[in-house]
């Protein structure tokens, strides 16, 4: 044992082979314990993930609390937590006030395949590489069924097998979340984290989709913890809940006795790299969000327009088509902010170009949109058409910016342009080069209102194994693709965001949407859930998918409205707009084989319902949404979150994923089934009051409400004790709504007071509402006071706000107030509001 400034180090020895590993345990100042294991004397360095953490976490100084022949106990700071390292069998326990919360290597499944030198590897070649990585996983986790078997076996890798794995026991936990991206819930079966292009993906599948975040969050009534497995190679995660639920539903049975040991066992196995495992200690959900954001970064604050509605299709045919769609939104009084162009806008699928016949004047088209305060987004995929006559291809080839095959040649696969090579975004120099491609001088036909969509960046290779790059492709620094596969889209997202930021000279926030992602992708922009299907089941699963992403830090996310594949029926389309209008990223998108589905093509009833969803439920709430993104950017709190994050002690919320909180003030329960006339809404909190935002009707918490619904109904409730800020009036885009007056809805709680201040939006005045007891001022009824103030973000800044409050609605008053007084700073005689404008909104 060696104590250092960064923690404590131990040498691990495997009894039979005498293989030596180096263990480092580091408590971090962000209430995280990091467990790092590498070879003690590797013949070749193993891949370590870089650029995901925002910096090396600052370590706490450890001290020895006690030591015996079997274990050593160490603590740090105020000694609220301890780490206990056992000698044999080896395990690491993390304790809180002497209670073991997490045990690392509890079942002895620590696994570490050593890298072999070439001479040893050659002699073992025919034996060592007989089994696939997938088969190794099966051998350690039996019984396992219905898994995807990898196609690469013998001879696939020049450096031989190098898989690593470990297990952890989470004591007292029965509910686990996270591990996106999957179209499923966590239910005790192994999950695969391996980014792939999956068209019209199946539901309830444990196979990998477009992105991966190896963060698992576990929750019980008194504590929330997280396990972050920092590894970018193919990874399997197996969850087992104990005691076992015979029905396999992962829900704690009511018949269990108080003495029954409840725990969640999680087993990680990755194809290469080192063991780099971080345990986030919480203990509250909000603290855990902050801890994870401190590690991997906070959500980038989106430009205001990006929170508006986006209209996309594969593909809008030409400039006339774009102008017609743009005019259609104005004609039907439906606000929107961004229109998107898919791959057909380019010259032969050459990105950073335009089809001269379809889009002869792209800059003029963008200026047309700019006059209406609207933007355009174009697609930019990571594959580059092999074309020696194309200057961009030659630049990338001659600059060494492409991924290579195992023989050292530029790798060539196939994608939309046909024969293509793939940009090696893992290289810092390549990312810098790629960023320059977005400059206005280099990207002809682009303007400052053109933003970017990264698609197919898992990466997708039509001719590759599992439709992606082969694992023995070689990246900058000699690393094999298997080492960093799940980082590929992350790095393109980073380079694109840097390019747009550089284009503006750092003065404008970029907007970039990416299909593939990894932990930390939240720093660069938005993601979406990929090629979904126009079905009720896909609509329903979009909510838990977004919640799972949000728990894992990817909070600017959403699903394609209406489903990308196939044609939605009118009722499904309406319900999808209503649901998507209550999620962070709001975009309609469809495949080129589907029928056109602009909102006005289904009759006036459908158009009116969509208009109401877009305008009233989304654009009017933009000040509130922008506030929530401000909090995400500064504290890590996701704008949408599962109910249990706001009601952590209420076990009936732990498995609820069809409704959710928007911030701490609004509860949403979208209708996701056809033909329903009534929905059941869980209103948590026995001491809470909830208000229907449409009728103002008051309901007590701690009940399941049966609510009648029509096609126009979107069940949303405001929590008592909150204040929600809305724009009032109408407009055509986010910039219009930003100029409108505000209305404030004050919802009183059981004590008949709002319990917390609210910041309506960055750049708008803040609000605080308080209650003064009548006894203090000898008033016959309680006195409520509302304070509005604004200030610059920096002490030396200036801020001149022209926004004004048009109205204040107070929910929960039993009687009309007798007097309302407006206090203005510097005014000695405050004016009174006319009582004729007041009404009780019980």
UniProtKB/TrEMBL annotation:
Keywords recorded for this protein, A-Z: Glycosidase, Hydrolase
Q: Where is the Glycoside hydrolase family 31 TIM barrel domain?
A: 300-628
Q: Which Pfam families match?
A: Gal_mutarotas_2, Glyco_hydro_31_2nd, Glyco_hydro_31_3rd
Q: Its GO biological process terms?
A: carbohydrate metabolic process; N-glycan processing
Q: Where is the Glycosyl hydrolase family 31 C-terminal domain?
A: 636-724
Q: Which SUPFAM superfamilies match?
A: (Trans)glycosidases, Galactose mutarotase-like, Glycosyl hydrolase domain
Instruction: Tell me its family.
Output: Belongs to the glycosyl hydrolase 31 family.
Q: Which PANTHER family match?
A: ALPHA-GLUCOSIDASE, NEUTRAL ALPHA-GLUCOSIDASE C
* Protein name (Swiss-Prot/TrEMBL): Glucosidase alpha, neutral C
Name the lineage: Eukaryota, Metazoa, Chordata, Craniata, Vertebrata
């Amino acid at each position: 044992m060696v104590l250092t400034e960064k923690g404590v180090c131990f040498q691990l020895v495997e009894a039979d082979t005498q293989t030596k590993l180096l263990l480092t345990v580091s408590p971090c100042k962000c209430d995280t314990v990091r467990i790092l294991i590498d070879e003690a004397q590797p013949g070749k360095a193993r891949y370590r993930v870089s650029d995901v953490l925002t910096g090396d976490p600052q370590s706490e100084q450890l001290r020895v609390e006690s030591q015996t022949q079997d274990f050593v106990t160490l603590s740090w700071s105020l000694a609220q937590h301890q780490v206990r390292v056992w000698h044999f069998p080896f395990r690491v326990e993390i304790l809180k006030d002497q209670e073991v919360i997490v045990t690392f290597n509890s079942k002895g499944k620590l696994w570490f395949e050593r890298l072999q030198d070439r001479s040893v590897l050659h002699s073992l070649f025919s034996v060592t590489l007989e089994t696939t990585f997938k088969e190794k996983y099966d051998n350690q986790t039996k019984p396992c069924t219905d898994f995807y078997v990898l196609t690469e076996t013998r001879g696939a890798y020049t450096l031989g097998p190098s898989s690593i794995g470990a297990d952890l026991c989470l004591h007292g936990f029965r509910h686990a979340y996270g591990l996106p991206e999957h179209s499923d819930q966590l239910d005790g079966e192994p999950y695969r984290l391996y980014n792939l292009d999956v068209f019209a993906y199946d539901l309830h599948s444990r196979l990998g989709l477009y992105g991966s975040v190896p963060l698992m969050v576990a929750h019980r009534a008194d504590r929330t913890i997280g396990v972050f497995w920092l590894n970018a190679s193919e990874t399997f995660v197996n969850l087992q809940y104990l005691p076992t639920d015979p029905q396999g539903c992962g829900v704690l049975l009511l018949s269990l006795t108080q003495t029954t040991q409840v725990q969640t066992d999680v087993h990680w196995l990755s194809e290469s790299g080192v063991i780099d495992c971080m345990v986030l200690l919480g203990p509250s959900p909000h603290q855990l969000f902050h801890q994870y954001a401190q590690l991997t970064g906070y959500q980038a604050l989106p430009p205001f327009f990006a929170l508006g509605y986006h209209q996309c299709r594969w593909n809008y045919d030409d400039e006339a088509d774009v102008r017609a769609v743009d005019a259609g939104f104005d004609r039907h009084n439906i606000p929107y902010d961004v229109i998107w162009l898919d791959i057909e806008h380019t010259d032969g699928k050459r990105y950073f170009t335009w089809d001269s016949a379809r889009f002869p004047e792209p800059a003029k088209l963008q200026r047309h949109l700019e006059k209406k305060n609207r933007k355009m987004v174009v697609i930019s995929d990571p594959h580059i058409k092999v074309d020696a006559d194309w200057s961009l291809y030659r630049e990338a080839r001659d600059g060494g910016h492409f991924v290579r095959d195992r023989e050292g040649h530029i790798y060539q696969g196939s994608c939309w342009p046909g024969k293509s090579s793939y940009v090696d975004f893992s290289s810092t120099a390549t990312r810098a080069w790629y960023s320059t491609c977005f400059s206005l001088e280099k990207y002809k036909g682009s303007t400052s209102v053109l933003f970017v969509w990264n698609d197919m960046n898992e990466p997708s290779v039509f001719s590759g194994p599992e439709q992606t790059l082969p694992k023995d492709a070689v990246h900058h620094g000699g690393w094999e693709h298997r080492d960093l596969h799940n980082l590929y889209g992350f790095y393109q997202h980073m380079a694109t965001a840097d390019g747009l930021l550089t284009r503006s000279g750092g003065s404008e926030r970029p907007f970039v949407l990416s299909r593939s992602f990894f932990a930390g992708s939240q720093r660069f922009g938005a993601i979406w859930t990929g090629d979904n299907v126009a079905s009720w089941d896909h609509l329903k699963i979009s909510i838990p998918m977004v919640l799972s992403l949000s728990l894992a830090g990817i909070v600017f996310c959403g699903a394609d409205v209406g489903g990308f594949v196939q044609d939605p029926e009118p009722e499904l389309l309406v319900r999808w707009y209503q649901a998507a209008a209550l999620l962070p990223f709001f975009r309609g998108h469809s495949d080129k084989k589907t029928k056109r589905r602009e909102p006005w093509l289904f009759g006036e009833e459908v158009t009116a319902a969509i208009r109401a969803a877009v305008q009233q439920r989304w654009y009017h709430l933009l000040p509130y949404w922008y506030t929530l993104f401000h909090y995400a950017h500064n504290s890590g709190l996701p704008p949408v979150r599962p109910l249990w994050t706001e009601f952590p002690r209420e076990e009936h919320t732990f498995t609820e994923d069809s409704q959710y909180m928007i911030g701490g003030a609004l509860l949403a329960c979208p209708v996701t089934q056809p033909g329903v006339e009534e929905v059941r809404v869980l209103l948590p909190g026995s001491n809470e009051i909830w208000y229907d935002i449409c009728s103002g009707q008051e309901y007590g918490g701690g009940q399941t409400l049966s609510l009648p619904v029509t096609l126009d109904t979107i069940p949303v409730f405001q929590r008592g004790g909150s204040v929600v800020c809305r724009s009032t009036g109408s407009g055509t885009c986010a910039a219009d709504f930003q100029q409108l007056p505000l209305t404030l809805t004050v919802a009183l709680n059981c004590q008949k007071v709002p319990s917390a201040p609210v910041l309506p939006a960055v750049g708008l005045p803040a609000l605080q509402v308080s209650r003064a007891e009548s006894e203090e001022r000898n008033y016959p009824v309680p006195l409520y006071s509302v304070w509005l103030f604004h200030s610059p973000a920096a002490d030396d800044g200036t801020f001149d706000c022209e926004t004004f409050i048009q109205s204040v609605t107070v929910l929960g008053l039993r009687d009309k107030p007798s007097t309302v007084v407006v206090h203005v700073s510097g005014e000695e005689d405050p004016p009174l509001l006319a009582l004729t404008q007041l009404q009780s909104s019980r």
